[in-house]
Structure formats: structure tokens, C-alpha cells
Amino acid sequence: MPADVRHPESLDVDPATGEVYVGTFDARMPESARNNQVLRFAADGRLLAQRHFGPTPLTGVAFHDGQVYVLNFGASKLQRLPARFDADSAIEDVATFAALSPPAPPARRIDNPDGSHDTITFGSQGFPAINGLVFDRAGTLYVSDSFQGAVYRIANAATCRPCEVDVFARDPLLATTGALPFGANGMAFNADQSILYINNAGDGRVLRKRMPDGAIEVLADSVYGADGLLFHEGLLWVSANQIDTLVALDERGRVRHRAGDFLGVDGQGAPRGLLFPAASAVQGRRMIVANLALPLSAGTGDEWEEDVTRWNLMQFDLPDPSPAP
Hints:
single chain, 325 residues, mainly beta, four-stranded antiparallel β-sheet, globular, 6-blade_b-propeller_TolB-like, SMP-30/gluconolactonase/LRE family protein
């Protein structure tokens, strides 16, 4: 990435041109030090444009119908740019997200092996932590909320004026009390869009919801730091940011492939391999991965992310689409 870019968090690809769009999550303190931006790269990795967003961190990025849609996490807004944006392109507000009532989802009951049960009660200050987004074929946009345990729906997001934000799902499985403080995160549809998949990063779970009215249920556990989510050729690719790996699940939740590992920080201060992978996108027969490389703990010297001074995108060849043994 350019020297002035930190913490690439989200990305997408224009399937027609192969151009790559990247959004950053720069949450440093003080806020005046932050330099959040959306970048546009050619298919071969050449930097084409940078559009600065200032101090507000960005999360989800999606290419749709000639526009790049951006979740402005810090401003609680959905915004967009033209796909061929430059440094001066206008940033358009599409929708604003607000606190829900109640701000926290319902309590979650956990049944234990000894016959007892626990109850997790969630708290929330009502900040809409918009994180992941995905379009369906009809042009409806779905957005996850990591703190309020919700999925929002915006019908006709490319054309609505003004756009109405509806709560599509609210469930205790979308919230977390985990060490990683983000619940509902990445989202993806299966091939016929009959199932919406949702990651819970803090719980390390992949969830699914049968469209449009099915209950939210667990598809897979133990995918620690389940972040960006992508469905491709029958496989669900999960960016597992706390184990520096991408995991490919089949539609029954079974692991079919693993890709990547952390191999250290090179002499230029850039990660080798994967370090806190947060998102992925397909370009032809390769997968492109964003290394967020974001320190999380308050301590010093305990995370490799602290040594990173130059951030990068990585790539690997996609496996053969035939089922793995």
C-alpha cells in the first residue's frame, strides 16, 4: 500500500475490469493523526486513485452498478463514490444508521452439558457499529451491526431517494461478549441467494439465515475472528483474523481448504503472509486478501501488529473448484 495508508480493512473487485477497491480502518488517537481513505488499484496492482475520508474509520466496501459503496463506521453512514473516482470525486451520503430501541439484543441462553444453563445479557450504548455489507440481485443492500446485534436492509439502495433503513434481523446470536468485541460482521449469499451467511467475529462463528424469514442458526464454530466473508464456487471463504488464515467451508460447514499463515514482518515493516486478514475478494482465479494488521490489546510488545509500518494486500491462487478430499 502507499506509505500514507494504514490498516486496509475491506475490499471488493469490479468483475468487469478487475479493479480493486480498498477501504481503511485507521482509528489511531488522536483523531487528527488519522488518514482514512478509499483506494482504487488496477487489476495488476497499480495505484490509480486515492479518495481521502479523514478521521472516520471505514469498514465495508462493495462495488455495485458502477458505484463503490462504503460503510463509514465513524460517521454511521452509508456513502458512495463513482467506480472511476479520483482524489476530488464527490462523496454522496446514501443512508444514516441510528441507535435501536432497545439498544441491545435479547439475552442468549446457553444450555450446558451438565443440564444447567447460563444466560448472557448484552449491553450496548446504542452506537450503530455498521461493519459488513452485501447486495442481492434485486439491488437490496444488507448491512451488519456488530454492537447492536442486527442486520439492516435498504431496498433499492442504488436508486432510493431518500433511503429507508429497516431492521431485517435482530438476534442474540448476532452479538458477542468475546475478547474480540465485534459480533455480526462479514456477510455473503449462497449461489441462489436462498441463504444469507453472517460471521460473528467475537464468537468465532459462521451463522446462516434462510431467506427471507428463517431463524438465524449456527453453521460452524471455532473460526476465531471470523471477519470478511465471501461465497465463491460453492465455498464460503472466511477471513479468520485472529489465526491469520482464510478458511473455506462447504455449505454444511465442513472445512475444505485453508490458506495462509503469518510468516513474520519483513525489513520494510510489512507482513509476510497474513496478519489479521480482514477481507477477501476474487479476481479471476486468484484471491486478494487485506492485511488489517491492527493491534488490539492495551499492552506493548505482545502483538506482531505493533511492528508493522507498511501495510499490504496479499494474493493466492484459488484451489480447483472440485471438492477436496
